[in-house]
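Revision sheet: structure tokens.
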Amino acid sequence: MWGEAARRLGVVLVAAPLALFSAILFADGLPGAGAVAVGATASQRPAKLVTANFARCIGARRITCVVDGDTIWLEGTKIRIADIDAPEISRPACEAERIAGERATARLTRWLNEGAFEVLPNPDGRDADRYGRKLRVLSRDGSSAVDALVAEGVAGKWGGARVRWC
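Predicted:
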């Protein structure tokens, strides 16, 4: 009687953790089932969901920070937001552009820190710009970071009417 009960308990003690492990492992499908094939284009790559604490980039060491209204560093990668035209702060054409650039930088920083967002491939297919920055679109709940900056008048949409800051 005790021997039979012990054998049944042993089966449960082995099977239960194995079942739990399997449920966790396969919860999102088979491992690698969502993997992108080698050589996949940027538009075929899955979006990356990001939650991080962003501050203004200061000094030479840049890991996760905001350079200006259209450029960030994310986990050591320099990213140029693909769908924005923001005013310059490093070499502005006039004082009004520098002020607008500071406002754009502050607004982008707030947007980045408001919660998780997706890092999406550049819709035109280019992976990087001529300076080596990765071209990406940042989106939260279907709305681009650019939408927030354009709504406040501190940036324009890339490819749209050119904003004159001076």
